[in-house]
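Co-fold these.
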Amino acid sequence: MQFILRIIVRNGLFLFYLLLAIIAFTFTFRQRVYHKSVVDKAGTEFTGFMDDKISGMTQFIHLDKTNRQLQEENAELRILLEKLKTERSAMHSVRDSISNPEFHQIYSFIPVEIVNNSVMQTHNMMTINKGSRQGVRPGMGLISSNGVLGFVYKTSDNYARVMSTLNTNTRITAQIKKNQYFGTLIWNGKDPRFLQLQEIPKYIPIEIGDTIETDGKSGAVPGGIMIGTVAESEINELTGDLEIEVKLKEDFARLRYGQVVVNLQRQEIIKVERNDSTSNAQF
Amino acid sequence: MLNFRLLGNIILIALLALLQGLIFNRITFEQAATPYIYVLFILLYSVKNNRYLFLLLSFLLGWGVDLLSDTGGIHAFASLTTAYLCLPVIRMIHSSRTFEKDEFRYAEFSVGQWFVYTLILVLCHHFLLFFFESFSFSNMKDVLLRTLYCAAFTLIFVYFYLIVFRKRERQ
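Predicted complex below.
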């Protein structure tokens, strides 16, 4: 009995080190599933507040570029508006032809400012300056005119943390614009300018320069937002799928503004899907 | 007296964590390197003081940085391990044959010894940090490259601090 005690006393420092290391590991692995502790919430609020202040100070340096971007986005939106106008007038004349599923899905957008962002880590995060008080909820998508920026994963009252697209845990369903085949976009953690599109079978013809866009199936992000273009594609002999490198349209290193996507029918979608699974379980 | 010093250390930790989380995390070089200046606390902590307290303080420092940059516990683990390795490394590069922990002062280090000491610990800290961040052996090359870039960047800040603020003590 005594020799056990002696071992503990003699290696006390090492055992103390082990204990703290285990705590650190717990923090690391708990982070991905559980974000509701008080410390976490206060931390989000505090860093959000500080980031907001710092961003406010450095903002004017980027004003020139931001202005130009807004101009371009405005022009694009105006073109889209004109298109929709003609489509709508066409719809009024022929009422039966509304078969486009995009017309049934209703989205609203909350404009946000990105007050903190990183592109260098493997699990990149962003902070945005709107939170649960302004209607931002975990699971919502964050987009800009140039693609999907990420997904909200925790909120405090006035700020929210967003899991960036440049995070090895993020999965986005995306499709090839010309033939509507869809796959999963992931990031391999290496180059912040490229994403990898997976699960596209190898018999599907793909050319360099093809457009990759969102497909809107998840309900977190509307369909038809361009993400990037194909930069390289080769067949993975192991899985028989294509491995496609997608060059991003958005430059993540200089993000300033984005929009949080609110799906107004999300509750309904969840309800329908839940009913589906319970009726299956009863069989 | 001890409590006074402890309080000072805790304030220093809070300050360093805030500095790192709010300012130095934003300073990047070519989107590839960030300085992690809070390692300075571990590098310069007096060897004579209680080792248990030292481990606990390093852990808290790392955890503070983790909270501010939302990284779970990787900074906590990296700085904790660096703190644990601190004394063995000093013992290793100390020139005299008999090493007495209670009589050692950092002022005894020559310039070369300072260089080796900081290099080993900073490399060790950064490697652990990036390794546990990616948590896989498959992109080892990137982890090592990032370790080198960031370590170089951190060391610039460390030497800047040492040369400017520790000069008086060395003379």
